[in-house]
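Deviations from the work plan: none for this task. Representative record:
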Amino acid sequence: MVTQLSKLGRFSVGIAGSDGKIVQASRKKKIVIINERGKK
Amino acid sequence: MMIEGGYTGRISKVDVEKLAKLLDIFDSVVISPIAIDPEEGTMLNVDGDQMAYAISTALKVEYLILLTDVEGVKLNGKVLKDIPVSQGKEIVERIGPGMNRKILMGIDAVSNGVRKVIISSGNVNDPISNAILENGTVIHNG
């Protein structure tokens, strides 16, 4: 994506949200899986 | 970057100051949906839409564009041109899982300072321009 933006003349950078602790999160205790009918 | 499946997180904070500094330097900042748990020091997968929501509301941006594999929110086979926040929850009850979460997030975003949320197709040429032209479904404060 950064390459494509650069080709369009946009001065761009790609980072992960974790870089520099920019995006912080807390770990989910469990994962709920919902199927296409909305059932768990 | 690969993160084990169980390492999934819920976003708790966005550092607006650091992001603003990056945006002062660069025209575009592309951010992959990986966050850090500051307590455990581990990296966590986060939902891409949630990441976009958290960043857009933290920065109070004008538009949040959610690109998807359909033209917009479909109801009875037709793409809805817009969803006023006041009607959002009623529409959500009639929409299938997946898209309903985007709408709820869009309602929250508009209620928290984002002017418009546009759900549009990523499968077209120039999808961002297409979305800014409001080809898709626009969630707004109506």
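Chain B touches chain A through 40 residues (CB under 8 Å).
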